[in-house]
Design goal:
The chain is mostly helical. The protein is 62% helix and 0% strand.
């Protein structure tokens, strides 16, 4: 790897850091004043993806990578709320990603471009699980916001649930809906 490629890889890393400061915008409609960041969402999506992959027999490492990369394009096109998608047409995620990684070492660009293309196609077991993880994370976040007193989150729960494909995702959704977000603070009975 030459210095230009290292600089290109670091440009992508710096750009991804913007996701730590960029809010998930759809929650503003539900009255959440300070919603989680896109990076917060992507982190837990990757964690859910790893768990769900193990439940579904998919590759947890591959699923986690797809989850980490699934919203990196939002540094350039932002988190466009679903209502806005009626009126706006954004560049395809694969196109945005190709621009983001163009200066990276070829092996890095190829890896990231292939992962985003796989996620967007949604056909491999890993992509199906990663997409379910994205929807599950939204559902879990809605459950947490509801427990914090945000009342108008049912539409996010319903739409996320309706999009789930795998049996494991449906089981996790049921557990989220019947669970307590802070239940983990109480040790289970011995």
């Amino acid at each position: 790897m030459n210095d230009d490629h290292a600089a290109g890889a670091m440009r992508f890393i710096f750009e991804a850091g913007v996701l730590k400061r960029a809010a998930r915008t759809g929650w503003w409609f539900a009255g959440v004043k300070e919603p989680e960041s896109i990076a917060d969402h992507s982190f837990r999506t990757a964690l859910i993806g790893m768990v769900l992959a193990a439940m579904e027999g998919a590759d947890p490492a591959r699923v986690s990578m797809l989850c980490v990369l699934h919203d990196t394009q939002e540094t350039r096109i932002t988190d466009i709320p679903h209502i806005a998608r009626r009126y706006l047409t954004a560049a395809p995620n694969a196109t945005v990603t190709a621009d983001q990684v163009a200066a990276c070492p070829p092996a890095v660009a190829d890896l990231i471009n292939a992962a985003v293309a796989e996620y967007e196609a949604g056909e491999t077991p890993e992509a199906i699980v990663a997409r379910d993880a994205d929807k599950l994370e939204c559902l879990v976040q809605a459950v947490e916001y509801r427990h914090q007193g945000i009342g108008d989150v049912q539409r996010w729960i319903d739409s996320s649930r309706a999009a789930l494909k795998t049996a494991g995702a449906h089981r996790l959704a049921e557990a989220a809906l019947s669970g307590e977000p802070l239940g983990w603070l109480t040790p289970p009975p011995v």
